[in-house]
Design a protein that fits this description.
By secondary structure, this protein is mainly β. It contains four helices and 20 strands.
């Protein structure tokens, strides 16, 4: 492939040189980096125009003009002949992940992701990680990046006597995506996911960036609510999300305004969305009611130069809407364990469903959250707490409010090779055994708890559903390089309620889940 590409590039370069020589026989000065004004007078005839004197009674002989290779003019829009529109300026292909027109000599800057500047939880941080393969206009007015994330996981349970599970390897995520930046502040991203042998469109949106304080986004993306949910999936400290993320929306379709103000001391995000159940995604609305999501956050030390207090980020968030479920789509959540085994769901008839034997969302659905993130050198701390309040009901028992709550604390420490980061972890010394470089090694610890509404059982949820869960997890992350890492987690979750088997009924609780989670990941 490399040889074919080199030959093709050389062939195209030769053709371009020949065509250029035919179009411009006489040498001309190099073009200016400043686009020419539209009123520029026509250039004089080239040197090879044949002319004779008037005394000979002949007329000038001018060869026909060469066909233009410029982008067709469409002033002010795509294809504008102005080089700033990415037209005649041409394209260059480079592997540098930077957004500058020249390649920085600083290796850290060279690997920085241009969209990860907003801080923890910034909607732009979805693209965190090595910057991908880039095609850019020569004047850097436009660019397109080809990215990829692959996560190959293993799940291995132990002490699962009451609920035996199947140990398995799987592809958790396989996401090739493309993102771009166009003139006039236009951005876009398309991110499909082939993980688990299915095809899901995770993200697809258009952005308009007027300035740092006001940006717009339209399409399908992560609503501005959960901190861990908004973290780049490639930079999660654990294989699976913590318990509080079960109460957050995953992906939704809508429109959002966001930005940083006061020199990045504060920020905001607010949008209107179709509305989805907790821990769920959707592409279409099932009713006309809409949901309003938003958050505000502070970076308390942003104004203090060289403060040395790390990257502290604190915020609050909320969602407010109405959900009215149907028998086909009740618009209610399903909660799962770290091994992705369902441990809580509402009653839904498998056959002959009616509103008397199926629980559905039937009114307001509001969420409230608070969180913080701090990174100082190799140490990071993350804490978050959420509540999801919703009106549910059925025709037999009417409506009730349910209040589901969860919180967690997480700490990581990198022993060598890198500093802690929310957006992505840059490895200073990628693995090279011949030079004694071993990448970066990170220890991660987490504890969390989930409470589900006890009054929902047994009327709206069956007796086999949990009333709560408590999780403890520990993990090691070995960063081979900026693009590859290996993860090993031990996870222990105990449950309150949820007994189904005879042994569980004797104790009053569902059997604890003990699981080893493994991951090999590449992101580019």
């Amino acid at each position: 492939m490399k040889g074919i590409f080199s030959c093709t590039l050389a062939f195209l370069t030769t053709l371009a040189s020949v065509a250029e020589a035919q179009d411009r026989p006489a040498p001309t000065p190099p073009p200016s980096s400043t686009p020419p004004a539209e009123t520029t007078p026509p250039a004089p005839p080239p040197a090879d125009v044949q002319t004779t004197s008037a005394a000979q009674g002949t007329t000038p002989v001018v060869p026909p003009p060469a066909p233009s290779r410029a982008t067709p003019a469409a002033a002010g829009g795509p294809g504008d002949a102005n080089p700033n529109a990415g037209g005649p300026g041409g394209l260059v292909v480079e592997s540098s992940p930077t957004s500058a027109s020249t390649v920085p000599t600083n290796t850290v800057a060279a690997r920085a992701t241009p969209t990860a500047s907003g801080g923890p939880g910034d909607p732009d941080a979805v693209a965190g990680g090595p910057g991908g393969f880039r095609i850019a206009a020569l004047d850097n007015s436009s660019e397109i990046r080809f990215r990829a994330l692959v996560q190959a996981d293993g799940r291995f349970w132990f002490d699962d006597t009451q609920r035996p599970q199947v140990n398995t390897f799987l592809i958790r995520r396989a996401q090739p995506w493309v993102e771009g930046r166009l003139p006039y502040g236009v951005t876009f991203l398309v991110n499909p996911d082939f993980g688990g042998g299915t095809v899901v469109l995770q993200d697809a949106y258009l952005g308009i960036e007027l300035n740092d304080a006001f940006k717009l986004r339209f399409g399908k993306f992560r609503p501005p609510f959960g901190l861990e949910r908004l973290q780049p999936t490639s930079n999660l400290a654990f294989v699976e999300f913590g318990l509080p993320t079960l109460l957050t929306p995953n992906r939704d379709v809508g429109a959002m305004a966001y930005g940083d103000i006061l020199s990045r001391f504060a920020g905001y995000a607010a949008g209107i969305f179709n509305g989805v159940p907790d821990n769920a995604s959707a592409d279409l609305a099932t009713d006309s009611a809409k949901e309003f999501d938003g958050r505000v956050y502070l970076r308390p030390f942003e104004f203090i130069p060289q403060h040395g207090a790390g990257r502290l980020f604190v915020g609050v968030s909320g969602t407010f809407g109405y959900d009215h479920g149907t028998l086909a789509n009740p618009l209610l959540p399903t909660y799962k364990t770290q091994g992705q085994v369902t441990d809580f769901t509402y009653i839904a008839a498998a056959t002959n469903a009616t509103f008397a034997n199926t629980t559905v969302a039937n009114g307001a659905h509001n969420r409230y959250g608070a969180y913080l993130y701090e990174a100082v050198g190799p140490l990071s701390l993350l804490g978050e707490a959420y509540e999801s309040d919703q009106i549910i009901g059925n025709a037999a028992k009417g409506n009730i409010w349910v209040h589901n709550r969860a919180y967690q604390g997480q700490a990581t420490f990198i022993f060598f090779g890198a500093n802690a980061s929310y957006d992505y972890t840059h490895v200073r010394t990628p693995v090279d055994f011949s030079t004694g470089h071993f990448g970066a090694l990170e220890l991660a610890l987490r504890a969390g708890h989930l409470d589900t509404e006890p009054t929902a059982i047994p009327t709206f949820a069956s007796t086999g559903q949990i009333r709560g869960a408590t999780e403890y997890a520990a993990g090691l992350n070995w960063y081979w390089s900026d693009s590859a890492k290996f993860v090993a987690n031990w996870d222990h979750t105990t449950f309150q309620g949820g007994a189904s088997t005879a042994a569980e009924v004797a104790t009053g609780h569902r059997e604890a889940e003990n699981i080893i989670l493994l991951r090999a990941q590449v992101v580019y």
